[in-house]
From TrEMBL:
Pathway info: Glycan metabolism; pectin degradation; 2-dehydro-3-deoxy-D-gluconate from pectin: step 4/5
UniProt keyword annotations, A-Z: Isomerase, Metal-binding, Zinc
Function comment: Catalyzes the isomerization of 5-dehydro-4-deoxy-D-glucuronate to 3-deoxy-D-glycero-2,5-hexodiulosonate.
Pfam families cross-referenced by the UniProt entry: KduI (PF04962)
Gene3D superfamilies in the record: Jelly Rolls, pectin degrading enzyme 5-keto 4- deoxyuronate isomerase, domain 1
Gene Ontology terms for molecular function: 4-deoxy-L-threo-5-hexosulose-uronate ketol-isomerase activity; zinc ion binding
Cofactor: Zn(2+)
Protein known as: 4-deoxy-L-threo-5-hexosulose-uronate ketol-isomerase
EC number: 5.3.1.17
Amino acid sequence: MQNMETRYTHSPEDIRHYSTEQLRKEFLVEKVFVPGAISLTYTHNDRMIFGGVTPTDKALEIVLDKELGVDYFLERREMGVINIGGPGHIEIDGAKEAMKKQDGYYIGKETRQVVFTSEDAANPAKFYISSVPAHHKHPNVKISIDTITPMETGEPLTLNKRKIYQYIHPNVCESCQLQMGYTILEPGSSWNTMPTHTHERRMEAYVYFDMQKDTRIFHMMGKPDETKHLVMGNEQAAISPSWSIHSGVGTSNYSFIWAMCGENITYTDMDMVPMDQLK
């Protein structure tokens, strides 16, 4: 089974008047991983498609053609994949590779077929994917968290000690505009990206996971001088437009995958927001 929901873009003036329910409807994806299914969201913010592929007893393949005006899904797109579940496999144009938890993959445009499977239906792989338009074919590259030297940042005093693993990044592999990575907060830390920032030249999507059932994330969004928030549970995702801050704090430590696309692939291209400007 495959489902794809479309979300449209919004002006920051629009969300000024949104209720909690409407804000959640427009920017929160409550169910990313559905056992035995593909669950995708198409956001008109830079035309990113993201979501979960959760094979159980049968292989799953993303099939999108007429919806995108192409003959096959990745004809004019590139895609990143990170597995956050049990062990599985990914078969790319007939070449099959094992994918343990935290393994990732960059898959370039013109790749005709990508098939996802799990080794154990009772402990399925959870492939988080992000796909964006691309205009050049770059080589497919498997990426393991074990091969990445993380950026270690933050400190216990400010409750934001964390490791940032850059999967799809110029230091690791080539891409057209997609960047993708995995951030793990240390025990005792709860804040990510604070002081916060915006990047007018790129949008972003987050999926939060490795959370206990009774923990929550407060995902901050909105213009810096008019902030709003989404309360999120385990394995839920948020869309972050380019004009919005994107920062979170949890009731415990957690992990999240971030994916960005837009004008450039410069990770540090961001506009920091002084603390006294947050409202």
